[in-house]
Amino acid sequence: MQMKSAFTRFCSRLGSVALLALTLLAAAAPVGARPLRCATDGQTQDASDVRLARLPAPAGGAGHYALILNGDAGKHHVQNCIDAYAALRANGFTDDDIFLLSNEPRVGSANVPTLGHNDGPPSTRNLAAVFRYLREQVGPADTLVVYVTGHGGYDGGKDPHCFIEIAPREKNKKVCSSGQLALDSFVAGVSAIHPRRGLFVFDQCFGHAFASTLADNGSFVSIALSTKPEEVFCQNFSPFFWSELRKSGQLRKPLPRRSVKAAYERAAKIARKKEKTQRPEMKLGPGVDPAKFFLWE
Fold it and tell me: What is the pTM of this model?
């Protein structure tokens, strides 16, 4: 009887200690580690909405954030996403660091096995949620990578603008306005993010306009695949660019590892050789040196 009573008291104390520990953990958990609702107040959350959750960077450490954006289901654009994902992982980015917004579900296959709460289609709701999250989380010691693949276009109507297609084309028809991410909207979302440095790669048509506009909006390296709006062949550049950066991963030896500049120069040389009309370009913002830009840092 006494043994039973002692055991009961022990279990009771153990339960109290566990409850206290859980309470302290919940109180100490930073806001950034909790899922953020994508839907705005009063809206129900759809199954396709991203649920953003991320562990905070160690105190005094530099964080890494990346967004891969693809509005197309074409095979080579899907492969571009896979290549970029592999390069980022090789350079120390975790699945919680990478936000993958793609219309192609195969991106969540065995090649990219973690199609989870950070990932989903590039809907306007998801894009707004991700940009808002990056504005709140990215700090002055952090690195940001944004990669846009797929298609881009130009609307020469009453309000001329370049845009990224965030919805798949139907029989090569122009996507409607709800399937477009306009240049000014993209730049407005990005300009409010203030990392130590950022890498932006645009391999869609009219990417030149995006890279040129971003040059004066932060410490960004902005890459476009061609100065000619529609002379863009991403398969001649992107696979080689990401392959070079993958070689520079944390576990790769010997030093020196590939810088952003070295990867760009190698891929640009291949692209120009494959298609002479294609002229990749790199735009630099203030205070950033692509020769000293290593993703793994």
Answer: 0.77
Q: How far apart are CA 162 and CA 231, in angstroms?
A: 15
Is the sign of the CA dihedral 76, 83, 150, 114 positive or negative?
Answer: positive
Looking at residue 106, the DSSP 8-state letter turns out to be G
List beta partners, residue 70: 102, 149
Task: Return the exposure string of 274-292: e unless at least 16 CB atoms fall within 10 Å of the residue's CB, then b.
Answer: ebeebbbbbbebeebebee
- Residue 87 or residue 78, greater confidence: 87
Give the chain's domains with CATH numbers: 62-292 (3.40.50.1460)
Using DSSP bridges, classify how beta strands 220-224 and 197-202 pair: parallel, antiparallel or unpaired: parallel
Q: Are 261 and 290 within 8 A, CB to CB?
A: yes
In terms of Cα–Cα distance, which of 121, 119, 117 is closest to 103? Answer: 121
